[in-house]
Amino acid sequence: MLQNIRDNSQGWIAKTIIGVIVCLMALTGFDAIFRATSHSDDAAKVNGDEISTADLNQAIEMQRRQLLQQLGKDFDPAMLDDKMLRESALKGLIDRKLLLQGASDSKFAFSEAAIDQVMLQTPEFQVDGKFSPDRFDQVIKQMGFGRLQFRQMLADEMLIGQLRAGLAGSSFVTDDQVLAFARLEKQTRDFASLTFKADPATAKVTDDEIKAQYDQHTKQFMSPDQVVLDYVELKKSAFFDQVKVDNDALQALYQKETANLAEQRRAAHILIEVNAKTTDAQAKAKIEEIQARLAKGEDFAALAKEFSQDPGSAKNGGDLGYAGEGVYDPAFETSLYALKQGEVSAPVKTQFGWHLIKLLGVQAPDVPTFASLKDKLTNELKSQQVEQLYVDASKKLQDSAYEASDLAQPASDLGLKVQTSQPVGREGGTEGITASRQVMQAAFSQEVLDEGANSAAIELDPETTVVVRVKEHRKPEQLPLTAVADGIRSELAKQHATEALKAKSEALIAGLRDGKIASTAAQEGQSWKVIEAASRSQDGIDPVELQAVFRMVKPTDKDKPVYSSVTLSDGSVVVLRLNGVNQGAAPSDEEKASYRRFLASRAGQEDFAAYRKQLEAKADVKRY
Question: Would strands 464-474 and 458-461 be described as parallel, antiparallel, or unpaired?
């Protein structure tokens, strides 16, 4: 790209650019030119602090991916309005900047140690309950962050959280508010319902209706914005075959690893402690008495259970299990390693008292053969050299891709193959390089997508680096009516079926209200489904239906129910009959405390929202 600029600097392109600049200077002056260029990398300024276009593009992409995850894999990403996404993302960045400024003005702060502690204790960064640097790098790279970038983001989030907590902590709730909320929360309702299922198969949809729907909502019927990517992939594993290791070095490493393996001995003992109640002489006399009984043929384990003062082993007949060298008191260990299996030592003095020691078993070390460890040892010796080769190759790939006008030269320089992806949209794929958020951000960036440049080197994981280039950009195109007619017909049929049910339910409700239809009479072969004392969180009832029931006004008389209807997500219509409203029991102290915490939290959120509005009202915000 830089070479192209140099090549064209003396040609007609350069002359045209200079001509445009001269015209702009004549029309608007140097000051306008300066202002236009000085903000080229800024999306906005908030009280003088910049929000870069790179930050905005990253926020837009994150918002796009979140929406796609929420809306499901069948949602067409082409239906997302780029202008609306940009406005929403920019507003979020401006709000965030205002809150950070507010936190700074209020003198909120965190130490570097506190930030470190949060990262160390985050479960997503741990392996087997401990912080893993490799896992940390993997997770933040999937999120699109470098280490310093993630640390700054975390510090900002902690400041905003501290500000929010400070505002929330200042909120309070009165006893009357708690009781009023409790009355509403514990209230139950008696109601009945009739559900009429929508049947799109019975609805008639004409070709003219389909055409009208298509013409009125053309933006909804576009092909997705897709790219086909060329890419080169650099794998660390490819360098292992390029590195040779010396057999002597392998043998030395083998000896080092196996030298740590040692014989294990299973000991049992009888301990008589020397303490404030028992002198050394008394303890020695007691252990010699036990030794004499052993000599007469009594069982060691039985005597240990009866006399040993080691609570950890006495109940197991003195058995201490297998252990290697360096575990026991030196005097104990010297005596143990002098025994043959089944032998009992003479009395042994340690810092704990007097012992009799029995060797129950010897476990020889399981020393693996050199052949069985050779591959592992080879990999260990090669790893350091491979890491350096991989780092050097990654840098070479980065430099070569930056200088080249395609991927053929970088691939040739490093002996790699140019590969091609399947067409993929902004939401990315499910496997391979297109599953990487970083790759998709790069693919749809201005430099790669619009200017046709190679991407920077992208580290997919600690073992893989790629460079991508857009081979083909399949821009959104208007889909023909024939391609979407069936979908439109299905949606219109559902709408017509629901509209017919709404008309039917309105007529039914009118008849119920004026008494022409009995309140409990069956309709179209179905009886009213009666629910007594339903709570706001009642199981087994559609939440939309339940919310509608609790929005209905209280009946003025026991014999005068109130009627309403609600449409469910599948197009069904439910006719509701509210028979009565029941007040709940007085809240317990525990419930009051729970309601108070909830109301205080809600009040804190409202205070926080008001504070944000105040910051926004006072701010000097410039959007570019």
Answer: antiparallel
Residue 201 buriedness (CB in 10 A; 0-12 / 13-18 / 19+) = exposed
Instruction: Indicate whether 21 pLDDT > 70.
Output: no
Q: Is 379 helix (H, G, I), strand (E, B) or coil?
A: helix
- Contacts of residue 493, Cβ cutoff 8 Å, sequence gap at least 6: 200, 201, 203, 205
Residue for token digits 């991508």? 468
- What would the pLDDT profile of 44-101 be if each residue is shown by its tens digit? 999 998 998 888 887 887 777 777 666 655 555 555 667 788 888 899 899 999 999 9
Cβ within 8 Å of residue 484, ≥6 positions away: 214, 221
How many whole angstroms from its chain centre is CA 94? 24
Same domain (yes/no): 21, 153: yes
Domain, as residue range, for 312:
262-363
C-beta separation of 475 from 227 below 8 A: no
Q: What is the CATH number of the domain that holds 42?
A: 1.10.4030.10
Please provide the average confidence, as pLDDT, over all residues in the chain.
Answer: 86
CA distance linking residue 107 with residue 265, whole number of Å: 62
Largest Cα–Cα distance of the chain, in whole Å? 120
Q: Is 54 exposed, middle or buried (0-12, 13-18, 19+ CB in 10 A)?
A: exposed
323: helix, strand or coil:
strand
CB 269 within 8 A of CB 320: yes
CB 491 within 8 A of CB 533: no
Q: Are residues 415 and 462 in the same domain?
A: yes
Total domains, the chain: 4
Contacts of 366 (CB under 8 A, 6+ apart): 261
CA angle 534–535–536, rounded 5-degree value: 125
CA pair distance 603, 211, nearest whole angstrom: 50
Say how many C-beta atoms besides its own lie within 10 A of residue 110's C-beta. 15
Q: Which residues fall within 8 angstroms of residue 137, CB to CB, at 6 or more apart?
A: 147, 462
Element (H, E) at 84: helix 82-105
CA distance 201 to 199: 5
Q: What is the pTM of this model?
A: 0.49
Write the DSSP symbol of residue 450.
I
Distance CA 30, CA 34 (A): 6
